[in-house]
Recover the amino acids of this structure.
């Protein structure tokens, strides 16, 4: 572990903007949610009524988890924010650990560092310490933020520990993934796949009320800390023990591999390239097809889950005659089902925006790894090379949305006896999300062309749009603020006719940003910071 503290300071220096932004967003999400719930549901009777509604809706519990105490503001805050805050903490931990371990080995910097007086475990140890410190700070700030609003200190501490503990578990997941694979992108994909499976297990367990499924996921553990509802401190200890076990396993695995290599062997390539790889578009497809397949599988699973749960939204009505009368005026339980499916398609649209950003920023990865130079030294222009990866990003985002929409439509249609009609209906509703996802790809391209060292801002834009979508109405933000997100302009096709105007507007903005980004890339030097 020699040199670990020096590497910790180096990592903090490199992440002096990225990690604080993650911390502010996660802590702000929780504290703002508590404030909004206190304002919207000041009376205990209002909170109890909301709790009854949540308890009767498996679909809502699949998204955010069960509510353990609807009588208190803290209990509703835990229901509303625990899952999303825990997911964000897990994502932060995965990205930080991979950035300072596998990415360092892939670029050769870890070998240079290792040539100095640095122990073999110093590089991964520093990454783990940075991610751990970030999660501890998140836990403390959440505790202070919630307690400062008058909520019980014990509940606030349990809430913070649940979120920080989940982030720490996925710190362990990420460090294990870094030992298994050769490339940083693969390590990130593997760790995020574990996070996705954890979310699905928790969602299925909560929706079907199968506790064994929910307990099989660290995200389910975070919910079952039961902040503000009779805290279970032993679950916090379970999170900590799991994280330590994963880190110990990673240390053992690290001894069994060479620097720069992964335990999972890389498949050797063919001695000669296939004829269809004779162009930049084919090369871009070859580089990104594995990631696209993983995204498509994830969208298919999520779509089937959402479609299967949609029909249960009618259970919210139950024996409530007032709610039944209101829904009859709005179009019956079908209106409630359509509202749920529309909301879930919006979530898929945001996630597709993440794919679009990732696929576009492959341009930056190729440039940083010095693989762009040899390609551009051939008879390939910069415009053609950049358009090849953009083609995969734009087409791929439309493809995964189509897969998610078809899966949701088939699952919902099979439950109500209309699989073909619902599949076509949901396919169209999913594809209208594509222009907003393309706008994010255009933002990433503009940053790549103008400010290549700041391409991480494209992820910041996605996070900002996601927070506007999830919290904008809850915080009662002005319309001009909500309209900053391209997803605010997507038509709600399941409940109203499609208005092509906003989609055309998004298309114009996207085209302008793409042209500006490609033009800027053509005028700058390779490797320019």
């Amino acid at each position: 572990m020699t040199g670990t503290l020096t590497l910790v300071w180096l990592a903090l220096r490199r992440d002096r903007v990225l990690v604080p932004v993650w911390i502010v967003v996660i802590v702000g999400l929780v504290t703002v949610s508590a404030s909004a719930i206190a304002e919207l549901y000041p009376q205990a009777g209002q909170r109890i009524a909301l709790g009854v509604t949540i308890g009767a809706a498996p679909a809502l519990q699949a998204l955010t988890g069960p509510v353990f105490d609807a009588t208190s503001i803290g209990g509703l805050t835990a229901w509303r924010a625990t899952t999303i805050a825990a997911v964000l903490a897990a994502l932060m931990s995965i990205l930080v650990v991979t950035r300072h371990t596998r990415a360092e080995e892939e670029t050769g910097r870890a070998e240079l560092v290792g040539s100095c007086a640095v122990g073999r475990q110093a590089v991964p140890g520093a990454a783990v310490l940075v991610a751990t410190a970030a999660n501890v700070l998140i836990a403390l700030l959440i505790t202070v933020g919630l307690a400062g609003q008058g909520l019980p200190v014990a509940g606030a501490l349990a809430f913070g520990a649940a979120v920080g503990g989940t982030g720490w578990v996925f710190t362990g997941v990420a460090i294990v993934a870094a030992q298994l694979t050769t490339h940083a992108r693969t390590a990130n994909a593997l760790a995020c796949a574990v996070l996705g499976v954890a979310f699905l297990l928790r969602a299925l367990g909560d929706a079907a009320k199968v506790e064994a499924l929910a307990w099989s996921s660290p995200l389910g553990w975070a919910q079952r800390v039961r902040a503000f509802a009779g805290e279970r401190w032993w679950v916090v200890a379970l999170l900590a023990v799991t994280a330590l076990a994963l880190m110990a396993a990673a240390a053992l695995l690290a001894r069994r591999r060479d620097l720069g290599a992964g335990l999972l062997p890389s498949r050797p390539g063919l001695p000669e390239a296939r004829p269809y790889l004779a162009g930049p578009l084919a090369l871009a497809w070859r580089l990104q097809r594995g990631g696209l397949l993983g995204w498509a599988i994830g969208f298919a699973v999520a779509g089937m889950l959402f479609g299967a749960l949609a029909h249960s939204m009618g259970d919210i009505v139950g024996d409530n005659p007032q709610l039944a009368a209101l829904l009859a005026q709005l179009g019956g339980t079908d209106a409630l089902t359509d509202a749920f499916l529309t909301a879930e398609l919006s979530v898929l649209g945001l996630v597709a925006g993440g794919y679009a950003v990732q696929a576009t920023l492959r341009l930056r990865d190729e440039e940083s790894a010095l693989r762009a130079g040899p390609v551009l030294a051939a008879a390939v222009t910069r415009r053609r090379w950049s358009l090849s990866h953009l083609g995969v990003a734009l087409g791929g985002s439309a493809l995964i949305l189509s897969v998610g929409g078809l899966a949701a439509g088939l699952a919902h249609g099979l439950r109500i006896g209309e699989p073909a009609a619902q599949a076509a209906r949901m396919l169209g509703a999913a594809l209208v999300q594509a222009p907003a996802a393309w706008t994010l790809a255009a933002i990433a391209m503009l940053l790549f062309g103008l400010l290549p060292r700041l391409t991480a801002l494209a992820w910041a834009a996605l996070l900002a749009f996601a927070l506007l979508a999830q919290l904008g109405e809850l915080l009662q933000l002005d319309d001009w603020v909500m309209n900053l997100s391209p997803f605010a302009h997507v038509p709600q096709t399941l409940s109203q006719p499609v208005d092509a105007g906003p989609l055309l507007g998004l298309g114009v903005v996207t085209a302008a940003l793409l042209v500006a980004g490609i033009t800027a890339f053509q005028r700058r030097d390779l490797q320019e910071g």
Summary: The CA atoms of residues 61 and 210 lie 12 Å apart. Residues 326-332 have pLDDT under 50 and may be disordered. Residues 382-416 form the longest helix (35 residues). The chain has 24 helices and no strands.
